[in-house]
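In the current project phase, the collection of sequences with tokenised folds has grown. A representative record is quoted in full directly below:
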Amino acid sequence: MAIDEQNPDSDTLADERARNAISIVQRGNLKTLEKTLRRQWRLGQNIVLCWSADERGLLVIFVPHYFLGNYCASGEEVCNANEAFIRELISGYRRKTRDELFEVCDRLEVAPTFIKLSTALAEEERVLEAVEQLVRRYGLSYVQSRAVLLFDIVEFSLFTPFEQASQLNSLSYSLNSAYNKLLARGIEINFARTTTGDGYYIWNRDLGPDANRDLFYFMLLVVADNAVARAASHGNTVPVIRTGYHIDGHYELYQAEGVNPTVFSYIVGDVTIELARMLAEAAPDQVLIGDFLAEPHEGAIAGKNLRTDAFVNVCDRGLQALVGTQLSGKSIGAISCHLSAQEGASQDEPALIRIIDKHGLSHHAYNLQLEIDLDGRQLSLGLDSAPQETEASCETTVPVQQSPTASSQDMIDDLASLLQKRRNTGSTD
């Protein structure tokens, strides 16, 4: 289900429908639980780690928000062991057996909090899932592996406030348009987003290989929709973007907003840091794919994770599902993608780009190219090639403006040449 970070009504309604399917007695339990969690949460002073069912209510572990940082701050070896323990504790389902919960208390040297309910919590899937959602909302979660996108608007700070608002709105429309196009093909992206100020982080709330693959398809359609819209636009109302896709771990939290936590989440961690470093050195129109290991899709060798090139190949073979999708009234007749190859090598040897960030740290990524047949017209998106190594640079390219005398149809037809022109004018060190 697509939601906007500033308009969480759809998410709230989904939660409300789920609760309406729960008995009145259990709804009362959930209401009592939420009221108590909010009181103990104390505007974000405390967070929930895990819980266990009790015949008279729930046992919950609360700790101050700074506790985990302090717990993971002792000596490197101890710190690594403690952080691994915490990550496992706050990953996936938070429910523990009574013995497990007290073992956690002993290790953390904290006492559990008892929350009394009017009756025992029912062992029903909807009830237990509602409890999990409440615990996550008043706590901190860790996701070990998830695909995340970053769309960054080029030269954003140089535009007028009106142009900035128009460009963010245009990119937001491309996100929603891609969502609807995939939904029409039977692919639903339960996507969430947070703004970076000049772009968006996007992730699929669902987890697993299929969710990661679907987010990859989503990215391709957003890039294509943005390019077509830019070719048909005037002035600086549609943004020039650079795009990143990566799979890694992250923390997820709900920030305080007034006296309640927000109903939408934020993510921060290895995956967002890597994306930011990748795109800091990306050229306009470039699509960078991180260097990662992904869970195998159905039919792959059991237990064997996919490297980036294998993951992209799997996604490319599934792009047939997007044939027939409409872009600006034109139908996609064929679509394919591949990683740029090393110079003088075969396509089976993709070029690994080394990126040196402003801190002198190295990051690695691949350059993605996308080919689309749009009613017989070939569109080439992404850069043709990428340097093997780039260093920090503030050099960017001023967005190309279309001639006001060209028709919308002509500008869409000339999209390929427009992108080629941008490649020739764009540069990175």
The longest strand covers residues 140-153.
